[in-house]
Specification:
Helices cover 38% and strands 19% of the residues. The chain is α/β, with parallel strands linked by helices and 255 residues long. It binds glutamine (GLN).
Length: 255
């Protein structure tokens, strides 16, 4: 839609008043994607109510590419792009990758685009996530962590599991708490209930020398380290964002 003068600005101030942090960018995106003024007003109302922008427009940019996100499906985060890019750089040209807890399939979509000769499979326990990932072109199956995939032969396993300790869910932004699926966020008492199974599952799926890239936060790298060692991985290599916050851990299965 081509906005009239001042439309984006007035929308941005409505969004800012509703507590939106990136009000200007979000207003511009709503205007750019809305087919007409009626839809734009309806979208604005939904966003003022806290619904994720990606559910309203049906899409999010991830690693510079639009990825479809159905309402109810965990929204791929910009802070996961580092994991996707690292994974792509470690995946051989004709390699095989598994994206566990794939959600909308954003990491898998990036791997497929960046390494077009590779075979990429995704899994998720949530059927609506798997439907969404398939619509994004990912060969995704419903199943728990590594459950649906055959052992060995994978060069790379990527995973963005739920890793927020149950007691810390209350500190997530109010919109995330109100709308996004707890299944994609709640990692149990220490936040690592699913992560633990991802480490064991990756050890089963990977060939010797294959890589696991795992999103975790806080100081969870230290908690994950002993399980990596006991599952046959080398030392965990953590990476951090510009603020110094932990964003993930990579580890290589011993050859
Ligand atoms: N802190 C993350 C977020 O809300 C948690 C994501 C997750 O558990 N997968 O973005």
């Amino acid at each position: 839609m081509l906005p009239g003068p001042g439309v984006v600005e007035s929308m941005a101030s409505r969004l800012a008043a509703a507590g939106c942090v990136a009000a200007g960018d979000e207003a511009a995106e709503l205007v750019a994607r809305a087919p007409d003024e009626g839809v734009l007003e309806a979208w604005l109302g939904r966003r003022e109510g806290g619904e994720p922008l990606a559910w309203i427009t049906g899409t999010v940019l991830f690693c510079g590419r639009p990825v479809g996100v159905d309402p109810g499906v965990y929204v791929p985060r910009p802070q996961t792009e580092g994991l996707a890019r690292r994974a792509a750089s470690l995946l051989p040209a004709r390699g095989r990758a598994a994206d566990l807890c794939t959600g909308a399939g954003a990491v898998a979509v990036h791997l497929m685009a960046a390494v077009p000769g590779a075979l990429v499979a995704g899994t998720d326990v949530d059927e609506s996530a798997v439907r969404c990932a398939r619509r994004n072109g990912v060969d995704a199956v419903v199943g728990d962590v590594d459950g649906p995939l055959a052992s060995g032969g994978f060069d790379l396993v990527a995973a963005v599991p739920p890793y927020v300790p149950t007691g810390e869910l209350q500190f997530l932004p109010v919109d995330v708490r109100r709308y996004e699926p707890p299944l994609a966020l709640d990692g149990g008492g220490d936040g690592l209930a699913v992560v633990r199974r991802v480490v064991a599952g990756a050890a089963r799926l990977l060939r010797p020398g294959g890589w696991l890239l795992l999103e975790v936060g806080g100081s969870q790298d230290r908690l994950v380290e002993p399980w990596l060692a006991s599952s046959g991985f080398g030392p965990g290599l953590a990476w951090r964002d510009d603020e110094g916050d932990l964003r993930g851990v990579a580890a290589r299965l011993d050859a």
